[in-house]
Structures are given as structure tokens and as C-alpha cells.
Design goal:
Number of strands: 6
Strand order of the largest sheet: 1-2-3-4-6-5
Helix content: 25-40%
Low-confidence stretches: 90-104
Number of domains: 1
Strand content: 15-25%
Structural class: alpha+beta
Shape: globular
Radius of gyration: 14 Å
CATH class: Alpha Beta
Distance between the termini: 28 Å
């Protein structure tokens, strides 16, 4: 999936969620998506590649980083709790804060799940009275 598609798909999805606001606190090139004032996604360009930062469960993040070349530790974020998802790029290795992409294996379903997970992880940390949704069931979560 190319970088512009990653950004567009994630944006369309995130803007459908309850209580989501789009902000640009770091300037016009970094779109920050917040739920009730708490960031769950950021869209930006990293070395010419459209990219996203998303919150993730640490164990899931480790598995995803190992399985998908499009997913790396969160750029300028806590590497344990955030990942960077990038579209296609021409870099071929990972190095520290660099979000590096070597393949085209990321699909819309996985991206959908990652955006939903990020949103729900942030909502789950809110007090119950402040939650716009139940993070355990929102978006079909908890259905087996």
C-alpha cells in the first residue's frame, strides 16, 4: 500500500470515530488525531514517506515490527507503546528512530485494525464517565 493511501485510509477511518478531533500542534505537516484531547494517531511525512504513529499494545507491537517491514518502532515516540506505519519506500533497513519500508504487505484490513486498536487503547485509559465508547466492544472488538 502506498503512503498516500495509508494516510487517506487511516484518516477516513479515524474521523468516523466518536469524539475525534484533528489538530496541528506541531505545524501544518503533522496531523494529530485526538479522542477527548488524547492523541491516538499522528500523520506526517518522514524522509519523503507518508507515515503514521499509532499506539499499540507492547506485545503486539513487537510481533508486528517483526512481521511487517512497513511497521517500525514509533518515530519520536515511546518505542514500547507506539509504532510507525509507513507506505512503500525505497529504504531497505531499520535503524533506531527511522521508519523504514521494504515491502508492500500492509493491507487495508490490518491498517483498519491498527487504527481501531490505537483509538481503543487511548479510550481505555480514560475514566469510564469520559469514554465516548466502550473500548472492549467498540468496532466489533470482543466479538469471537
Amino acid at each position: 500500500m502506498d503512503g498516500e493511501t495509508v494516510i487517506n485510509v487511516a484518516h477516513e477511518q479515524a474521523m468516523q470515530y466518536p469524539s475525534v478531533e484533528l489538530d496541528y500542534p506541531f505545524g501544518p505537516d503533522s496531523a494529530v488525531y485526538k479522542v477527548r484531547g488524547k492523541m491516538f494517531m499522528m500523520a506526517f511525512e518522514l524522509r519523503g514517506t507518508p507515515s503514521l504513529n499509532l499506539k499499540i499494545d507492547p506485545l503486539d507491537g513487537e510481533v508486528l515490527r517483526d512481521a511487517y517491514p512497513e511497521i517500525s518502532p514509533g518515530y519520536h515516540m515511546n518505542k514500547k507503546h507506539w509504532i510507525t506505519v509507513a507506505g512503500e519506500g525505497d529504504a531497505s533497513s531499520r535503524n533506531g528512530d527511522e521508519a523504514v519500508v521494504t515491502g508492500d504487505r500492509l493491507d487495508a484490513d490490518l491498517l483498519h485494525d491498527l487504527v481501531l486498536e490505537s483509538y481503543c487503547l487511548v479510550v481505555a485509559k480514560m475514566s469510564k464517565k469520559d469514554r465516548p465508547v466502550d473500548p472492549e466492544t467498540f468496532g466489533g472488538r470482543g466479538d469471537d
